[in-house]
Design brief:
- This protein is an alpha/beta fold.
- It has a domain at 3-171 and 200-227 and 293-306: NAD(P)-binding Rossmann-like Domain (Rossmann fold, 3-Layer(aba) Sandwich).
- 43% of the residues lie in helices and 17% in strands.
- The chain contains eleven helices and 13 strands.
- It has helices at 12-23, 58-65, 87-108, 121-127, 138-154, 180-188, 204-217, 233-244, 256-272, 281-288, 309-322; strands at 3-7, 27-32, 47-50, 70-73, 113-119, 159-165, 167-169, 193-194, 198-203, 223-225, 229-232, 252-253, 291-292.
- A seven-stranded parallel beta sheet has the order 3-2-1-4-5-6-10, sandwiched between helices. Strands 7, 9, 11 and 13 form a four-stranded mixed beta sheet that branches.
- The radius of gyration is 20 Å and the shape is globular.
- The chain starts with a strand and ends in a 6-residue tail after the last helix.
């Protein structure tokens, strides 16, 4: 039985990855931050190790990786975080430097496979250079660097594969889904306004399947932009309306030109406040006016199974409604 290590095994993506690994017969160890009351444990059959990666010594980390066939890097900061400017520095420290350290320790521990949980904004940086994802937008810029630096650390010794992850829906016990903002917006607006674009979407279970598939069948250096369902922003917000009992037909689709000035003004306000989005707001608007969708067949090698993405969206939004955010 091969031994593997999942970093973040009680988070949404790490949990479902660990669950898939156990189902495939691997011996799984999880390193995760200590649980808070009500948060999920690791899946049944997983060996838990609780601790903050940033506080662990290199010797301890190498010892944890000793004898492991693969390491899954299912941690990091995403674009929802709005740090002090410059955002690129924050995401560089959170995602790139941490990845480099862990990948180096994995290589020195003779790990054979290293799977990075990245972002499909890296895929869109290749598709649409005009978005500035390689230049002015710190989040996708550092996601690209994360991929490259992991490959450099493993070169010639350890295979490195990256999952370029899109919108992900699903639950893990005790953790609020990423999609609370959808509920907040449909509640706040009489007629929620959305742009006409669409996005790739998957379930958390499918991410776990893709991670196992990348380890078992992926090519060294592979960047896999996974997709299972084409989700329009209109449909997402209609499902948000449905979740709170609001008329889904109230969602209004508007052209980019109608909202771009508002996004540009909001961008000026964030700059004046000394903070910076990982993707600048006008670029987000342009992105959401396009069809940011990948061909699922391009990642067929990963063995992702069909799943009900819409049901997972409904489940995620229903959880948010049933667990109101506590006001301070």
């Amino acid at each position: 039985m091969k031994e593997v290590l999942v970093l973040g095994g009680n988070g949404l993506l790490g949990y479902h990855t660990a669950q898939e690994l156990v189902a495939h017969g691997y011996q799984v160890t999880s390193l995760a931050l200590p649980r808070k009351p009500g948060q999920s444990d690791v899946p049944s059959g997983v060996i838990p190790v609780w601790g903050d990666l940033r506080e662990l010594s290199n010797d301890y980390l190498q010892g944890l990786m000793a004898g492991k066939y693969a390491v899954f890097f299912a941690i990091g900061a995403d674009e929802r975080t709005i740090p002090r400017a410059p955002a690129a520095r924050f995401f560089y420290e959170a995602n790139v430097l941490t990845t480099q350290r862990v990948a180096r320790m994995a290589r020195e521990a003779n790990v054979k496979k290293f799977i990075v949980f990245g972002s499909y904004t890296a895929e869109m940086a290749d598709r649409w250079p005009d978005l500035g994802y390689r230049t002015r937008n710190g989040y996708p810029r550092t996601r690209l660097l994360q991929e490259e630096i992991a490959c450099m650390e493993g070169m010639g010794v350890m295979d490195v594969m990256t999952l370029r992850l899109p919108y992900i829906f699903g639950l893990v016990e005790g953790q609020r889904p990423l999609w609370q903002f959808v509920i907040d917006q449909v509640r706040a607006q009489q007629d929620p306004v959305v742009l006409p674009g669409s996005t790739s979407a998957v379930t958390a279970r499918q991410v776990g399947q893709a991670a196992v598939g990348a380890m078992e069948h992926g090519k060294n250096g592979g960047r896999y932009a996974i997709n299972s369902y084409t989700l329009t922003y209109k449909e997402l917000y209609q499902l948000g309306c449905e979740a709170i009992g609001k008329d889904p037909h109230s969602v209004v689709v508007v052209p980019l030109e109608a909202v771009l000035p508002t996004y540009e003004e909001m961008q000026k306000q964030t700059e004046a406040a000394g903070i910076e989005h990982g993707v600048h707001l006008p670029d987000t608007a342009v992105f959401q006016s396009r069809n940011a969708v990948n061909d699922p067949d391009e990642c067929a090698v990963l063995g992702i199974e069909d799943d009900d993405v819409v049901a997972a969206i409904r489940e995620s939004l229903a959880w948010c409604v049933a667990h109101p955010v506590e006001e301070n």
